[in-house]
Amino acid sequence: MSGGDAKKLVRSPSGLRMVPEHRAARSPFGLDEPPWVPDKECPRCMQCDTKFDFITRKHHCRRCGKCFCDKCCSKKVPLPRMCFVDPVRQCAECALISQKETEFYDKQLKVLMNGATFFVTLGTSDKSELMVCRLSNNQRYLVLDGDSHYEIEIVQISTIQILTEGFTPGGGNTRAIGMILQYKVPGSEEVTQMKFIAGEDFSCNKKLSAAWLAAMHKVSK
């Protein structure tokens, strides 16, 4: 593992985490651990209002930091956005959000890092270039490789517009064919636009391109 992407195992009150050695290398999809509501400020469950005592113990949700009884905070769910090694205790509301995000980490991120091929047009140019587009391994950059090379920092992306074709009155039968990406150039307020179109001559890659675009749509959310 390169020095810039090196990780270390740390222990927090919430559990073991595998985090980047350098904070600047952290994923843009990451979340900081929340401060826990102090025990003295939480005499009752913040969900069901049950009073805590020797039998009814309090537990903190690892995602929101609020205080709950065991019944309201019984789920242990993976929380990759905080880099936890094992599933951690979360309240019902947070567990639902984390379960949805786990699909993004297990599926969409892998699709993005594997990459797909598009015709890319920069700005107002009338010329496009065939490029392989992928997310970097540290999840911080969108990397475009062809005759040219671009690296777009994810946090600099301002808008992602997915382009589709096909339409029925019921709204079905549409498919993603490309996207328009707008991002800021580091050190400048200038906004640059790129247009990505899946090549019609690459029918074997259409499914891969559509999956990659769907994953980028998830990124925008």
Question: Could you describe the 3D structure shown?
Answer:
- It is a single chain.
- It is built from two helices and 13 strands, in the order ββββββαβββββββα.
- A hairpin with a 2-residue loop joins strand 1 (7-12) and strand 2.
- The strands form four sheets. The chain has a seven-stranded antiparallel beta sheet with strand order 10-9-8-7-13-12-11. Strands 1-2 form a two-stranded antiparallel sheet.
- The protein is 17% helix and 34% strand.
- The protein starts with 6 loop residues before the first strand and ends with a helix.
- The longest helix has 23 residues, at 92-114.
- It has two domains: 7-110, Zinc/RING finger domain, C3HC4 (zinc finger) (Herpes Virus-1, 2-Layer Sandwich); 115-220, PH-domain like (Roll), CATH 2.30.29.160.
